[in-house]
């Protein structure tokens, strides 16, 4: 009776040990930096993997991404034609009775839309989107945007009008694609937001953080391979954090296993 119990418990230990090995193999695989790089957000407009779009994407706002892009030329074409209207049913001329969006402001929103749709470097900031059911399974959170980009964007838009201080929520979708979808009153951006930081962080519901660290921030329009480097650094940080967690869990499991086998 006692022997059978010991045998059984040895077998359990063996199974546990194999389980740990298997689990670690899976975990180690999921924690390399490469797993966070060259990825596209899972949503209706994004491609599955980044790739070349080439000449078709020339002469558009999104051209900087033409050789490695998460958007198709068609998305690019839509952005140039009507901003976020074809893509998301959101109008940028939200207050046509007062003033339509100025061109200098619109340039920034177009660049932002290209950045979001086309950049293959947002992988480390992709998270599951638990709220949107229809258009996307994933979103980005806390992408560090260079201070200079936020400042220029806010400054060029501060005299322009909007009717919503968080473009991710509040819209009346039964009036989609028209100013009637507005949830709040028409006010200048500078009246909704007191600073470029607030503007950058709040308007897109936490997708961006205003970064004062010039060495480690993303440019809305890529400058050299800066965005690639920032993305790689973040991917390595994420991978090493995951590896550290995995190591400590592995350590605890291994010591308890050894303890079990010895005593
Ligand atoms: C894309 O690649 C082509 C051919 O190699 C090159 O001429 C072009 O400048 C590249 N575009 C960008 C935006 O890097
Ligand atoms: C491009 O987008 C338009 C409007 O969203 C759509 O009607 C059209 O089918 C798309 N074309 C391609 C080639 O995907
Ligand atoms: C804004 O654009 C709409 C549509 O093109 C136009 O009807 C409206 O008059 C414009 N508003 C102003 C203030 O110019």
The ordered H/E elements are HHHHEEEHEEHHEH
Low-confidence stretches: none
What small molecules does this complex bind?
2-acetamido-2-deoxy-beta-D-glucopyranose
- What overall geometry do the principal axes of the alpha carbons give? elongated
Strand content: 5-15%
Protein name: Folate receptor-like domain-containing protein
Organism: Clytia hemisphaerica
Pfam families: Folate_rec (PF03024)
Signal peptide: 1-33
Short descriptors:
Folate_rcpt-like, 44% helix, signaling receptor activity, signal, 6 strands, 263 residues, disulfide bond, mainly alpha, two-stranded parallel ribbon
Overall description:
The protein has 263 residues and is mainly α. The chain has one domain. It contains 8 helices and 6 strands. The protein has helices at 2-29, 73-82, 85-88, 103-118, 147-157, 189-192, 196-202, 226-262, and strands at 126-128, 138-140, 143-146, 161-162, 187-188, 208-211. The strands form 3 sheets. The chain has a two-stranded antiparallel ribbon. A two-stranded parallel ribbon has the order 3-6. α2 (73-82) packs antiparallel against α4 and α5 (147-157) packs across α7. One 2-acetamido-2-deoxy-beta-D-glucopyranose (NAG) binds next to loops.
């Amino acid at each position: 009776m006692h022997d059978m119990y010991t045998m059984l418990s040895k077998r359990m230990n063996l199974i546990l040990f194999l389980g740990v090995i298997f689990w670690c193999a899976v975990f180690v695989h999921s924690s390399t930096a490469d797993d966070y790089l060259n990825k596209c957000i899972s949503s209706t407009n994004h491609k599955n993997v980044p790739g070349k779009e080439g000449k078709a994407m020339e002469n558009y706002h999104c051209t900087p991404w033409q050789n490695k892009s998460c958007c198709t030329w068609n998305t690019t074409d839509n952005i140039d034609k009507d901003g976020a209207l074809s893509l998301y049913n959101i109008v940028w001329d939200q207050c046509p009775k007062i003033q339509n969006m100025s061109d200098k402001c619109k340039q920034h929103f177009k660049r932002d839309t290209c950045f979001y749709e086309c950049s293959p470097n947002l992988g480390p900031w992709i998270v599951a989107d638990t709220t949107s059911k229809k258009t996307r399974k994933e979103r980005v959170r806390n992408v560090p945007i260079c201070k200079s980009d936020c400042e220029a964007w806010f400054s060029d838009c501060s005299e322009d009008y909007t009717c919503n201080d968080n473009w991710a929520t509040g819209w009346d979708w039964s009036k989609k694609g028209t100013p009637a979808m507005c949830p709040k009153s028409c006010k200048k951006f500078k009246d909704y937001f007191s600073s470029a930081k607030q503007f950058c962080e709040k308007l897109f519901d936490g997708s961006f953080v205003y970064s004062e660290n010039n060495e480690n921030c993303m440019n809305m329009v890529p400058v050299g391979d800066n965005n690639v480097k920032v993305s790689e650094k973040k991917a390595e940080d994420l991978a090493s954090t995951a590896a550290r967690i995995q190591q400590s869990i592995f350590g605890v499991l291994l010591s308890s296993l050894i303890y079990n086998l010895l005593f």
